[in-house]
Amino acid sequence: MLKLIRLEWKKNRIGKYARNALILTGVLFLMLLTVAGELESVETRFSYGRDMLKSGVEMFTNLSFVIFTSVMLAAFIVGTYRDKTINLMFSYPISRKMILGSQMAAVWIFNFTALVLSKIAIFAALAATRRLTHISAQSIALGSGMFYAEILADSAVMVSIGFVSLPVGMFLKSSKAAVIAGVVIVCFTQGNIGSYTLMGNIPFYTVLLAASAVSVFASLYRVETRDV
């Protein structure tokens, strides 16, 4: 499986995705840098229960990488079905489930790692620029184990939720459909209507995780005999 994952990364030129993720992280940091002081002052002024700066970083990084996950699923999997190149891969003396599973794993591992590193890098950069933004030390607890545990758990959930877009793209055999589905997911998970938002809503995220598991199962179901 590991060899297949590395082959998928090599075949799809993973370096360009790493470069794009790095650029995305830089853009998100600059954007958050401009509003970090305001978020901090709003938190102090209104005494919100959850740190707004931390929520802001999580929202923008999650939003970006759910879409990033959908884009990679479109390129790694949906595109091969659309262009029929998956037929050549399925002609190899390897289980189809193993091939498709390695493609999914390649996307998941990359985006999980990229999202975790992006969040940590942005938090560290914001902490290093406290003199510019006047952020308090309590807002970014880089020395707390729980801080990193939350980042790991949240990143795993968000990247997994991105897989809900996979069956949409595969059913329609359209990369655009997969990306659009990712955008719709982001609107539901990170958006808000007035003061109401589903961001951080555990029951809603549980339903989406279940939908993600069903999506992966549906993509692998009968793949050994299904015509492509």
Give an overview in words.
Mean pLDDT is 81; it is low at 43-50. With 228 residues, this protein is mostly helical. It is built from ten helices and two strands, in the order αααααααααββα. It has a two-stranded antiparallel sheet. The chain has helices spanning 2-11, 14-46, 52-82, 86-90, 96-128, 130-133, 145-161, 165-172, 175-190, 202-220, and strands at residues 192-193, 196-197. It has one domain.
Brief summary:
By secondary structure, the chain is an all-alpha fold. The protein contains ten helices and two strands, in the order H-H-H-H-H-H-H-H-H-E-E-H. The chain starts with a helix and ends in an 8-residue tail after the last helix.
List keywords for this structure.
228 residues, mainly alpha, two-stranded antiparallel sheet, 2 strands, elongated
In helices, the fraction of residues equals over 70%
Mean pLDDT: 81
Order of the strands making up the biggest sheet: 1-2
Sketch the major β-sheet: 2 strands, antiparallel
Task: Supply Rg.
Answer: 19 Å
Describe the oligomeric state of these chains in a short phrase. single chain
The count of helical stretches stands at: 10
Segments where pLDDT lies below 50 for 5+ residues? 43-50
**Amino- and carboxy-terminal Cα gap:** 22 Å
Number of strands: 2
Q: Quick one: overall form?
A: elongated
Instruction: Look at the helices and sheets and give the structural class.
Output: mainly alpha
Spell out the helices and strands N to C: HHHHHHHHHEEH
Share in β-strands? under 5%
Count of all domains: 1
